[in-house]
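FAQ

Q: What does a record look like?
A: Structure on top, sequence underneath. For example:
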């Protein structure tokens, strides 16, 4: 993996009108960090080239909730890549977001329950679908991380590559938001299963964690709590990538 191509992506998770970070994917945990639009602007000003936006209310309720906030974030810049997930359950939901100016839609529950939706959206908007595989205890979970599927992440990743997914977002929910370090072997298993980019997420607390995930062959890492809690600055995260040779 060329260090220049490995990307640091700040997370902007939205719940009850606030930018938040949950612990272990559990609703009602974690901390609030203020206006998500201002938060997104701050990350753009810091130099982020991609933003990872999650409508957590939508993820838990099964329908899009924070459409106006997301639209305001899209309007902040026409040069930053915006990927959005949470509450996208139909191809129409996805196309609506893409028409709004979102660059990539992230499908989790919808892709697991109806895999053909990936192919349907890809046929209409090629290279616009990122399939989110959130894993707890070695299996993909859905419905806001509350229901197990019995499917291993690597197996699922291969399936969605064949259906036209442009990338896989792999989140290790067991360590998400805990600032306790990454489990890179889980990400590596997904990377090894596919030929499309894999975006890693979950557990990053240090520059070493970033380097460890980069070494798996992942294309990027989404970072939330470590940035919000000051464990890492955005510049420090970038420096970690640049130091890998």
């Amino acid at each position: 993996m060329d260090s220049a191509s490995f990307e640091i992506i700040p997370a902007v998770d939205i719940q009850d009108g606030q930018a938040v970070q949950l612990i272990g994917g559990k609703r009602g945990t974690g901390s609030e960090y203020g206006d998500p639009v201002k938060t997104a602007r701050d990350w753009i000003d810091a130099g982020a080239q991609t933003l990872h936006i999650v409508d957590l209310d939508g993820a838990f309720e099964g329908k899009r909730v924070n459409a106006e906030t997301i639209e305001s974030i899209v309007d902040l810049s026409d040069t930053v890549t915006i990927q959005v997930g949470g509450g996208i359950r139909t191809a129409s939901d996805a196309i609506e977001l893409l028409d709004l100016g979102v660059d990539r839609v992230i499908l989790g529950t919808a892709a697991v329950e109806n895999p053909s939706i990936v192919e349907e959206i890809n046929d209409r908007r090629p290279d616009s679908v990122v399939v989110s595989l959130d894993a707890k205890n070695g299996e993909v979970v859905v419905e806001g991380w509350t229901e197990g599927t019995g499917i291993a992440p690597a197996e699922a990743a291969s399936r969605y590559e064949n259906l036209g997914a442009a990338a896989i977002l792999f989140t290790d929910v067991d360590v998400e938001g805990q600032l306790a370090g990454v489990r890179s072997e889980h990400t590596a298993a997904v990377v090894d299963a596919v030929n499309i980019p894999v975006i890693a997420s979950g557990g990053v607390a240090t520059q070493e964690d970033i380097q460890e995930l980069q070494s798996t062959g992942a294309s990027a890492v989404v970072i939330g709590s470590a940035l919000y809690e000051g464990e890492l600055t955005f510049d420090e995260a970038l420096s970690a990538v640049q130091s890998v040779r």
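Q: Is there anything notable about this one?
A: Residues 36-46 form the longest helix (11 residues).
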